[in-house]
Amino acid sequence: MPHTAPQDPSQGWTRKAFLRGMTAVGLTPLLPGVLSSEARAASADRAGDFALVRDGVAVDVFVDAADDAAVVRAAGDLQADVERVGGVRPALRHTLPERAAGLVVVGTIGASDVVDRLVAQGRLDVSRVKGRWEASVTQVVDRPLPGVDRALVIAGSDRRGTVYGVYDTSERIGVSPWYWWADVPVEHRDTVTVPAGPLKRYEPSVRYRGVFVNDEQNLTTWSHRTQEPDKNIGPRTYERIFELLLRLKANYLWPAMHPYSDFFNKHRENPELAERYGIVVGSSHPEALLRNGVHEWAPWAEEHRGADGSVPVYDYTVNPGVISDYWRARARQNAAYESSWTLGMRGLHDSALETKYATTIPEKVAVMNDIIADQRRILAEEVGAAAEPQIFIPYKEVLELYNAGVRVPEDVTLIWPDDNHGNMRQLPDAAERARAGGNGIYYHLSYWGRPRSYLWLDTTQLAKVWQELRRVYEHGADRMWIFNVGDVKSIETGLSFCMDMAWDVDRWHADDVEDFLAEWAGRQFGRRHAREIAEIRTKYYRLAAERRPEFIDRGIFSVVHHGDEAGRRLAAYDRLLERARAVGAKVPEAYRDAFFELVEYPVHGAYLMNLKYYWADRNALAVRQGRGAGTNRFADLAHAAHAEELAITQRYNTQVAGGKWDGIVNPYPSQIPKAPGRPTVTRLPRQETSGLGVAAEGNETGTARPLSFSSYSRDRRFVDVFNTGFLAVDWAAEASHPWVVLSAAGGSLTEQTRLWVGIDWARVPEGAWDATVTVSGAGQRIEVPLRVRNDGERARRRARGFVEAHGYVSIDAVHADRRVARGGARWRTVRGLGRRTAAVEAVPSTAAAVTGDFATRAPELRYRVRFTGTGTFPVTVFRLPSLDERGHRRLALALDDQPVTVLSGQAVATGNRGDAWARNVEEGVEKLTATVTVTEPGEHVLRLFMADPAIAVDQIVIDTGGLPTAYLAPPESYHSVFRPEPAAVEGVDTPDV
Question: Which PANTHER family match (predicted)?
Answer without folding.
Answer: GYLCOSYL HYDROLASE 115 C-TERMINAL DOMAIN-CONTAINING PROTEIN (PTHR37842:SF2), PTHR37842
